[in-house]
Known about the structure:
Layout: H1 3-64, H2 68-96, H3 100-129, H4 136-141, H5 145-166
Helix pairs in contact: 1-2, 1-5, 2-3, 3-5
Amino acid sequence: xxxxxxxxxxxxxxxxxxxxxxxxxxxxxxxxxxxxxxxxxxxxxxxxxxxxxxxxxxxxxxxxxxxxxxxxxxxxxxxxxxxxxxxxxxxxxxxxxxxxxxxxxxxxxxxxxxxxxxxxxxxxxxxxxxxxxxxxxxxxxxxxxxxxxxxxxxxxxxxxxxxxxxx
Length: 167
């Protein structure tokens, strides 16, 4: 074996080491990007739930003022709460593989969405099959604070995880 064979063998070993380390680095980057993408989905879901709560505030005010807007948009809002509840199944699976605190916060939001959706459903049934009147005071007195706090906790926990991943 002469010197050129040794140099060639050395170059092959160096190329192999560089290739393997490049593959490992790429896989780490892909895992980090996937985790961030999933955390962004959780945050977006929480924001969507929060938007539903804001719309519920507007609808409640419209119902108190006895406008057509409140009665006509309540079924649509209920369907969005139900979609958020359905989407929460996927979000729960994502959160399950993440931090425990995030998973618990997502579970709290799910439970609160269910309560809120049941309240809206009851009012819609009352509107369509019952007296034809929605009890705006009942909607107004319902305590949305636990849902708002749970949504904020989900956003906070997901953001903490993202911040830890960045540093």
